[in-house]
C-alpha cells in the first residue's frame, strides 16, 4: 500500500503502520490445530486474521465441545472492543490450517479506530456482518428443518470459505462433519444422512476433513 493512501480496513494496514499506531502489535504464525486462547482465559487483546481460518468452539456444562463459528481472513476475535479492561473469553480459538494473525491490545486498537474514521467504519461493517450472520443462524434454527439449515450453511460457507477442489469438484470446504453438524445445530448422524442423500444426487462428496461441492446451485 502507498504511504499516502489511507487504509480503509485493518487488513490493509502494513506492519509498519500497525507498529506506529499500536506498540503492542505482533504477528503470530500458527500451524493447524494450534490453540490461540481457551474458554475462560482472561485477555485484553484482539486478533485479526491476516491469512487462514480460525475455529471458535465452546464447552457446555457436560464438557462437550461445540463449534460455534469458523472465521476467515479479515475477521476479528478475542477480547471485545467495547470492554475497557481484561475480559473472560467465552470461546476457545483454534487455527484451522496454517494461519497468520495480527495480535494487538484492545485499548490500542480502540485509539487507532478513534483516530481513523474510515478504519472505524469498515470495522463496524465487519462486526455488523458477523451479527447479521448470527441472526440468520438463529432464524434458521427456529423456522427451518435440518435439511434446509444444512443447505443454507453449505451455501454460506461456500461463499466465504470455499476454495479450489483438488478432487475435481467445483470447490471444497475444509470442515469435518462434526463441525458442520455443530454449525447447523443438529446431531452428526442426522447431518451424515442428509450429506449421503446429497452425495447420491451428485451435489457433493466428502472426505475426512473436506466437503467437496459439485453443484452449488442444487443447494438453492
UniProtKB/TrEMBL annotation:
Pfam families according to UniProt: cNMP_binding, HTH_Crp_2
GO MF annotation list: DNA binding; DNA-binding transcription factor activity
Keyword terms: DNA-binding, Transcription, Transcription regulation
The HTH crp-type domain, residue ranges: 144-217
Domain of life: Bacteria
Listed GO CC annotations: cytosol
InterPro entries with a match to the protein in the record: cNMP-bd_dom, cNMP-bd_dom_sf, Env_Response_Regulators, HTH_CRP, RmlC-like_jellyroll, WH-like_DNA-bd_sf, WH_DNA-bd_sf
Family matches, as CDD domains: CAP_ED
Domain Cyclic nucleotide-binding: 9-113
Protein name (database record): Transcriptional regulator, Crp/Fnr family
Organism: Nitrospira moscoviensis
